[in-house]
Design goal:
Length: 204
């Protein structure tokens, strides 16, 4: 059995898959079929083509909530995870989208447990709206994946998820800097490398 993890230690894809596999077994033992819908960085990890780790697993929806959270605590004891490794407190955060994600991805699928996660565009809108320092690398990662380079494109994605609100001005400034960095990175990759000048006396 894994030892206790250090608080705040990042969770990678393998750790999350073990946790959800164990959770599915516990739920099956209870005769429970459950669904969990994730937001935040965990879907980026479990989709295995984006972020490598996450500090938490934010569940916007857990159905049925009681048996799933009880089983999740049993998984935590077995695998040395924090008791709240499956965190449903995000449902109280005021920046949650008004609309459900029509492009949610299936991240884990079994007879007793199905885990879905927010799509890249939905996560980008939430990350942009918060734009905390820890969100900005994910903003860049998602912008790369979605081919976004301009604030007008970001506002379009944000508006589809938050149709009644604009991006907060401070968040917009931080995201604009992220996009500028992305454009600079792309420009550097596209520019051919210049050969260094030959030293005097070595030309033939």
């Amino acid at each position: 059995m894994p030892g206790p993890r250090t608080p705040g230690q990042p969770l990678d894809r393998a750790t999350l898959e073990r946790a959800f596999s164990s959770l599915a077994r516990h739920l099956a033992g209870r005769g429970v079929r459950a669904h969990i819908y994730l937001a935040g960085s965990a879907p980026l990890v479990l989709a295995h083509r984006r972020s490598e780790t996450t500090l938490d697993v934010d569940a916007l929806e857990i159905d049925p909530r009681g048996p799933v959270l009880e089983s999740a605590r049993e998984v935590a004891r077995e695998q040395g995870l924090p008791d709240d490794w499956l965190n449903d407190q995000i449902r109280f955060v005021p920046i949650l989208p008004a609309r459900q994600d029509p492009r949610a991805e299936v991240l884990f699928d079994s007879e007793s447990l199905v885990v879905t996660g927010a799509s890249p565009a939905h996560i980008l809108a939430m990350k942009v709206r918060a734009a905390r320092p820890g969100d900005l690398e994910d903003v860049k990662l998602l912008a790369r994946e979605l081919g976004i380079t301009r604030m007008a494109e970001v506002r379009e994605v944000h508006g589809a998820v938050y149709p009644y609100d604009d991006i907060p001005w401070r968040a917009a400034e931080r995201v604009a800097r992220c996009l500028a960095e992305l454009r600079e990175e792309r420009s550097e990759r596209a520019s051919p490398r210049r050969r260094p000048p030959r030293e005097a006396g070595r030309e033939r």
